[in-house]
Amino acid sequence: MKVTTTASGHVTEPEPEHGSAAGSGSAAGARAAGTSSWRLLLGYVRPYWRVLLLGGVLSLVSSLAGLAMPLLAKGVVDAFGRDQSLAGPVLTLTVAVVLGAGIGALGRYVLERMGEGIVFSARRSLVGRMLRLRVSEVDRLKPGDLLSRVTSDTTLLRAVFTDGVVESVSSVFMLVGAIVMMAVMDGVLLAVTLAVLVLAGGLVGVVMPRIQRASVQAQEAVGEMGAVLDRVLQAFRTVKASGAEDREIAAVGDAAREARDRGVAVAWLSSIVGISAWVSAQLAFVAVLGVGGARVASGAMEVSSLIAFLLYLFFLVAPVGQLVQGFTQVQSGLAAVRRIREIEDLPAEEAAGAVPAPGTAPAGVVFDSVVFRYGDDRPVVHQDVSFTVPAGGMTALVGPSGAGKSTVFALLERFYEQQSGTVAVDGRDIRHWPLAELRAALGYVEQDAPVLDGSLRENLLFAAPEVAEDELRRILALTRLEDLVARLPEGLETKVGHRGVLLSGGERQRVAIARALLRRPRLLLLDEATSQLDAVNELRLREVIAEVARETTVLVIAHRLSTVTGADRIVVMEAGRVRAVGTHDELLTQDDLYRELAATQFLTSA
Ligand SMILES: Nc1ncnc2c1ncn2[C@@H]1O[C@H](COP(=O)(O)OP(=O)(O)OP(=O)(O)O)[C@@H](O)[C@H]1O
Question: What start-end ranges are recorded for coiled-coil regions in this protein (predicted)?
Answer without folding.
Answer: none
